[in-house]
Amino acid sequence: IIAGFGRPVPEGLEAFPPASPLAVPSLHIWGDADDHIPGWTSEVLSTYFASASVHRHPGAHFVPQKPPDCAAIQAFLAQFAGQAAEPRRPGAAEPQRPMAPEPQQGPRATAPVGPAGVAEELLGALRRYAGRGG
């Protein structure tokens, strides 16, 4: 969640904030100089998650791309890489997701499969980007 805040109330929640912290892995990123979303709102939002990871950067309201920022995102995504996809309930339909365009060059020939494949794809992209000295 980048520059997240707790309002408006997310659809599907009967109570907000939640009565107990959500047991969903989350990474909360915000800039100390953000002039759109005050950092304290992102910090409060992070308390609604049982095991929130937090990464603050000195910048403003943008997705941070410096090596320490990429490292924080890589560390968060690494916990999902290599995990098997959750088993589907019998009779459940295959989830529909858009196919990624084929890369014009590079090692990937097909779209990643499942949450672990997506996490590994993102980690690889971040590693390549961080290696450029971004």
How would you characterize this protein structure?
The chain is an alpha+beta fold. It is built from 3 helices and 2 strands. A two-stranded parallel sheet has the order 1-2. The two termini are 21 Å apart. Residues 97-104 have low confidence and may be disordered.
Give a concise summary.
By secondary structure, the protein is an alpha+beta fold. 28% of the residues lie in helices and 9% in strands.
Which key features would you list for this structure?
single chain, 134 residues, alpha+beta, two-stranded parallel ribbon, 3 helices, 2 strands, flat
Main sheet record? 2 strands, parallel
Estimated helix fraction: 25-40%
User: Count of helices?
Assistant: 3
Which sequence of SSEs, written as H and E, runs from N to C? EHEHH
Please tell me the overall pLDDT: 75
Strand arrangement across the biggest beta sheet = 1-2
Global Rg: 17 Å
Give the strand content. Answer: 5-15%
Uncertain residue ranges? 97-104
Shape by Cα distribution: flat
Instruction: Tell me the structural class.
Output: alpha+beta
Separation, N- and C-terminal Cα atoms: 21 Å
Question: Which helices and strands occur, and which strands form pairs?
Answer:
Layout: E1 26-31, H1 39-46, E2 52-57, H2 67-78, H3 114-131
Parallel strand pairs: 1-2
